[in-house]
Amino acid sequence: MAQRKDKSQAMREKILNTAAQLFIHKGSEKTSMQDIAQTAGISKGAIYHHFKSKDEIVFAVMRSRQEMMEEEIKQWLKATENLTGREQLQTILKNNMGSQTARAIDGILGEYEKDAGFILTMMRDNLRIGASVVSDIIKKGMADGSLQTQYPEEAAEVFLLLVNFWMHGAVFESEPERLPERFHFLQFMMTSIGLDIFDDELMQLFSQKSKH
């Protein structure tokens, strides 16, 4: 019985990992159940044995990737603990933009940008996972003099919402040529409240990400 359960769990994880990789490269909207089955080398029936629909797979991938994201953040925090608050926040931002886990989540957002309930859940989860982390880094920066703001908790929440949702062209629609203006406004706004973290390298990474 235990062996059968282990095989079932292994198959479920194989399906989710395959789907996540396809979401990264194609987006969830353009990924079909047949694509997942063919890439995983299994039948569509095997997928339907574990998941009733593609939506169920999408939400399962999202949950698993959020858990992975939390673990990655813990690792990044440990690896950057000797940096100043400003340097630590910059490094974690750069790591996040290069993260395959974060890209899988982005690949899902594109399909559900019109689903208000889904986006609201995503926003809440994003703040739940990241707000206290960013706030603690800001406070660290305030203590070491690299960052200064009167509202670390509020700044952390606004920062996450803007970076992860407002800057996402699919969620808050924007013409591609307008995105650089958003980048520069975000840089201006964060600097004006004492969070001067958007250096040239970060701005370039944001620009490159928006083109994918």
From TrEMBL:
Keywords: DNA-binding, Transcription, Transcription regulation
Listed InterPro entries: DNA-bd_HTH_TetR-type_CS, Homeodomain-like_sf, HTH-type_TetR-like_transc_reg, HTH_TetR
Gene3D superfamilies on file: Tetracycline Repressor, domain 2
Source organism, top-level taxon: Bacteria
Residue range(s) of DNA binding per entry: 32-51
Domain HTH tetR-type: 9-69
UniProt xrefs under PANTHER family: HTH-TYPE TRANSCRIPTIONAL REGULATOR BETI, HTH-TYPE TRANSCRIPTIONAL REGULATOR RUTR
Protein name: TetR/AcrR family transcriptional regulator
Taxonomic lineage from the root: Bacteria, Bacillati, Bacillota, Bacilli, Lactobacillales
